[in-house]
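**Entry details**
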Amino acid sequence: MTSENRAAAKRPPDSEFQGGEGRLTRFTPKLDVLGLREDDAWCAIALEMGLRGCGETFDDALDALAEAVEAQVTFAVQHDNLGGIFVPAAPRYFRVHADVKRAALKRKLLDQGQSGLSDYRVGALQLPKPAGSFKPAVACRAWRG
């Protein structure tokens, strides 16, 4: 067996990988997140699902968003309504996300830090596996903001 065949035998099926030749990475479904400060609170938006989580800090907003996403996915799976999971946010949020991500990448390449992006954040949230039971209290707390 050649070294190329041995490498292919150890590698999971191609459906689990993304990237170009020699740069394969395991595919992990993630949601693009736009964080924005509104008054004295942060809002984190899962762009592909149109869900929001709010909190005093961006991390708090991400935590609330993660709970809302898990609740939505679990509810949709339990009710056989996967089409109800992916209802995207408004197009303007996708544009802002692209602009903020581009600015953050430029600042990183120029080693300038994130100082000019104080009211915005970009990130990703891993798509969760549906939980064993739906927790409506979690969903309500996440939506209250």
